Amino acid sequence: MKARKNVAPASENYDKKEFFIYDSMLLRYYGKGGHVVIPACVSEIADKAFRGCTSLTSVAIPKGTTYIGDMAFKGCTGLTSIAIPKRVESMGEFAFYGCTGLRSVKIPRGVKAISNNPFAACERLESIAVCKINFKYKSDGNCIIDRKTKELVAGCKSSVIPKYAASIARYAFCGAGFKEMTLPESIKSIGEFAFYLCSELTAITIPSSVTYIGEGAFNGCEKLTSIVIPQSVMEIGFKEEINDPYYKGIEPEEHRIIFGDCPSLKSVKLPERFRGQDLGISPCAEVVYY
């Protein structure tokens, strides 16, 4: 992060007890919520700036804003709509995590970087659109898709995965409110925590094209009753060649739990190669190896 010189320009008229702004970055909001108009001098919204502000119902973000930080609006359960300005280039991870009042979002043309699903745990979210002239991402079937890699970055309760999608990103469907999901034959990998906290999910069909299922992929799927892992899956929970600091120095066995907190899971069918591995399956579930 670049050095911050001083507080916002004196010419900007705003309540300093409500907004803590430093060098054009809104570091923290201390107001009472409702409809909030962020001062025009703000160009960046810091990590966790509005976190936990449940009384926030709507917010006007300045047109010159270019960055929305990690968990910036996490837990703003009263927020029912959001207009993301055209100049925003980067959206931090879990920027709107748990904003359960959100029903629709639109990603503007300027966004070039989206970290771990900004709309994770927005269980009522049912419409996702991306500006048609955004050259990095596009929307299809209420999903955000990376144009180049064809990775599904984020989805929602009404998502229909495009038949050309190549992979599902980390946390892509975290907390989404759908009940069933069928993955197309184009999917080759399911990222870490991809379906984490999908508490309404009862059934999911995984195609024989999938070779990798990441750590925590189905953790917290409280209503999931049965699942078949196809023979094509060669790795579960950990990729030994993965280039990620998160896994540095960690034994693969520590990250193979993919069915944690799935109390309704009664039937699991797994390839023989996974016999003896702790995948977090409840001892009450019937496991069949084939």
Label this structure with key terms.
disordered N terminus; single chain; mainly beta; Leucine-rich repeat, LRR (right-handed beta-alpha superhelix); six-stranded mixed β-sheet; 290 residues
Describe the overall structure.
This protein is mainly beta and 290 residues long. It has a domain at 179-290: Leucine-rich repeat, LRR (right-handed beta-alpha superhelix), CATH 3.80.10. It has no helices and 22 strands. The protein has a 7-stranded mixed sheet with strand order 11-12-13-14-16-18-20, with no helix packed on it. Strands 1-2-4-6-7-9 form a 6-stranded mixed sheet, with no helix packed on it. The radius of gyration is 20 Å and the shape is elongated. The N and C termini lie far apart (51 Å). Mean pLDDT is 92; it is low at 1-8.
SSE blueprint:
Layout lengths: L18 E4 L2 E5 L4 E4 L6 E2 L10 E5 L6 E2 L21 E2 L12 E4 L5 E2 L12 E4 L6 E3 L4 E3 L4 E4 L12 E2 L11 E3 L6 E2 L12 E3 L6 E3 L11 E3 L6 E3 L29 E4 L15 E4 L1
Order of helices and strands: EEEEEEEEEEEEEEEEEEEEEE
Structural class label = mainly beta
User: Judging from the principal axes of the Cα atoms, what is the shape?
Assistant: elongated
| The level-1 CATH class of the domain at 179-290 | Alpha Beta
The name CATH uses for the topology of the domain at 179-290 is: Leucine-rich repeat, LRR (right-handed beta-alpha superhelix)
Strand order across the biggest sheet? 11-12-13-14-16-18-20
- Report the mean per-residue pLDDT as an integer: 92
From the alpha-carbon coordinates, what is the Rg to the nearest angstrom?
20 Å
Helix proportion range = under 10%
What gap, in angstroms, lies between the N and C termini?
51 Å
Number of helices: 0
Enumerate the spans where pLDDT stays under 50 for 5 or more consecutive residues: 1-8
Largest sheet: 7 strands, mixed
What's the total count of β strands? Answer: 22
Strand percent estimate: 15-25%
